[in-house]
């Protein structure tokens, strides 16, 4: 049973880690496309120079330094599902972080499309706003001089440090909250595994096996379990991306996903080895025919403390997010036709989502009396129903981030199955 628990939790931990990496790559691709490394904001409200002259000067500066200067723009008539990239200079920028085929952009966000457009064809698109750049210090100095000469305000955006970015992604992001929670579960199931194998570890020590060898062997045994789950999770995630978007997009994820996989393996192995070291069998325990439950108890208390800290970190943002999601859900029920027509771009989906809610709800209500009798009361049924509903709603949000309507519908049905029993028995 422990083996299955470790494999399942490892699979979930890896899956949500890959989803978080995908979210970050998707955001980076839209903020810093085509290999750019920095962002700046231009305010041209007070300039007296014509738009054509400003564009020409930016083109010349870009050509002079062989730099990259691009601007992601959203067409006013298709702001929901289109983002174009305007590039300055004579040469089209090339990069391996985005797929462009005949000037057609395939974003990682499957709900978006766009075109790569020369600054000469900018048309009525605005010049003010955010730009992404890549160039040396002389290029940046020329950009600042150009802005000063034309009465333009320029602001360079600071890069967010890795530590701050990691903190934000784990604490203020729903996917990151799941990762932290599952990591605690992972530690708990490892503790359970070591408790169930403590007798065997003591026997191995008694038979003359070196304690270091016991640590290494047990760490390798556990590593085989979670590494296989991590690989299965990665392959499943890549297949999903390929089916819902394009298999070519996997090449954009490859390096980051492999690094994430290696980090997960190293962290998991270190946790396993650390627990093994803490609860190692000793000769004095063998002499007294005891298992080191005191150390297991200390680790259990440590896990509880970590859970409390985690709760204190994520509860404020979770409450806010839950309130927002509740309002969004209520708005969707009350204005479903609007939501399906203008957000999901298909008014016929309203009926399909209604079926996805009501059919599972009816099925759950039919079986509610039987389940109440089987579990001898409503408590266990309500608890499991709540858990299933929460998981279903969370997966709906994740599917929405991925832009997959079929998955949104499937997880809506899953959540409705969880809602049914506690609606019926109340």
Report on the structure:
The chain has 426 residues and is of the alpha+beta class. The chain is built from 14 helices and 8 strands. An 8-stranded mixed β-sheet has the order 4-5-6-3-2-7-1-8, covered by helices on one side. Helix 5 runs antiparallel to helix 10 (293-334) and helix 10 crosses helix 11 (336-343). Mean pLDDT is 80; it is low at 318-328.
Task: Looking at this protein, list some descriptive labels.
426 residues; 8-stranded mixed β-sheet; alpha+beta; 14 helices
What's the story with the biggest beta sheet?
A: 8 strands, mixed
Assign a percent range to the helix content: 55-70%
Please give the count of helices: 14
Unreliable sequence segments: 318-328
Rg over CA atoms: 27 Å
What's the topology here?
Blueprint: H1 2-31, E1 38-43, H2 51-65, E2 68-73, E3 84-87, E4 99-101, E5 104-106, E6 114-118, E7 129-134, H3 137-149, E8 153-157, H4 162-171, H5 174-196, H6 198-206, H7 211-244, H8 250-278, H9 283-287, H10 293-334, H11 336-343, H12 349-374, H13 379-402, H14 405-424
Parallel strand pairs: 3-6
Antiparallel strand pairs: 1-7, 1-8, 2-3, 2-7, 4-5, 5-6
Summarize the structure.
By secondary structure, the chain is an alpha+beta fold. Helix content is 68%, strand content 9%.
């Amino acid at each position: 049973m422990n083996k299955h628990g470790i494999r399942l939790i490892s699979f979930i931990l890896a899956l949500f880690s890959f989803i978080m990496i995908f979210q970050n790559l998707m955001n980076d691709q839209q903020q810093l496309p085509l290999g750019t490394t920095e962002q700046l904001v231009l305010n041209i409200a007070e300039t007296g120079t014509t738009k054509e002259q400003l564009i020409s000067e930016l083109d010349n500066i870009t050509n002079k330094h062989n730099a990259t200067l691009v601007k992601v723009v959203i067409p006013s008539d298709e702001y929901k599902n289109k983002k174009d990239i305007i590039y300055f200079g004579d040469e089209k920028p090339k990069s391996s972080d985005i797929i462009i085929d005949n000037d057609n952009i395939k974003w990682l966000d499957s709900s978006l499309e766009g075109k790569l457009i020369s600054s000469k064809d900018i048309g009525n698109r605005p010049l003010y706003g955010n730009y992404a750049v890549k160039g040396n210090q002389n290029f940046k100095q020329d950009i600042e001089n150009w802005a000063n000469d034309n009465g333009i305000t320029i602001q360079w955006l600071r890069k967010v440090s890795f530590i701050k970015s990691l903190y934000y992604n784990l604490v203020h992001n729903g996917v990151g909250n799941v990762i932290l929670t599952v990591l605690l579960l992972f530690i708990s199931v490892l503790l359970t595994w070591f408790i169930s194998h403590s007798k065997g570890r003591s026997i191995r020590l008694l038979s003359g096996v070196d304690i270091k060898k016991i640590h290494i062997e047990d760490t390798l045994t556990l590593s085989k379990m979670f590494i296989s789950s991590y690989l299965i999770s990665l392959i499943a995630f890549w297949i999903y991306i390929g089916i819902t978007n394009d298999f070519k997009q996997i090449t954009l994820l490859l390096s980051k996903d492999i690094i994430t996989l290696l980090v997960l393996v190293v962290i998991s192995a270190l946790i396993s080895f650390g627990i093994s070291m803490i609860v190692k069998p000793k000769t004095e325990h063998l002499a007294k025919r005891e298992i080191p439950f005191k150390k297991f108890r200390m680790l259990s208390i440590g896990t509880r403390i970590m859970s409390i800290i985690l709760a204190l970190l994520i509860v404020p943002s979770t409450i806010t997010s839950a309130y927002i999601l509740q309002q969004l859900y209520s708005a969707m029920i009350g204005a479903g036709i609007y939501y399906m027509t203008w957000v999901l771009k298909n008014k016929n989906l309203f009926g399909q989502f209604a079926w996805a809610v009501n059919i599972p709800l009816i099925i759950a209500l039919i079986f509610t009396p039987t389940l109440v009798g089987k579990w001898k009361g409503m408590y266990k049924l309500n608890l499991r129903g709540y858990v299933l509903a929460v998981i279903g709603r969370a997966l709906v949000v994740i599917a929405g981030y991925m832009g997959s309507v079929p998955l949104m519908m499937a997880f809506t049905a899953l959540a409705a199955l969880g809602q049914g029993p506690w609606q019926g028995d109340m």
